[in-house]
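We close this part of the discussion by returning to an individual protein. In the encoding step, the backbone of a single protein was reduced to a row of integers, each denoting a local shape. The sequence in question and its structure tokens are set out directly beneath this paragraph.
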Amino acid sequence: MRNALDYRKRVRERIRAVPHVMDPGGAETAALAWIGGLEGARVLEVGCGDGRLTYRFAPWTRSVLGIDPDEERIAIARRGLPAALADRVRFEVGDAVDLAQPPAAFDAVFLSHSL
């Protein structure tokens, strides 16, 4: 178990070292719009990280619960949450395995860059 925890720590450190870009070409946002299904939906976003993608699809939804096991990323997501989305977006530290909400609480589950 210790090796797995050490590996996770090393992976997180490497991920944090990668600069985050807010979809300058709009490709991710366009792909989400093309896929659809989020309009008016109650969405669970697994592995939301710092919320960079959440902020772009949340305006289409009824509500979003973004979860991520990384406390620092969740803190960043909460600090960066635009006031216009504060009534529909919530960020929590956690993972899909230990989720407190029942599956019926969501209309859609969204994973992006999640392992």
Q: What stands out?
A: Residues 43 and 95 are 14 Å apart (CA to CA).
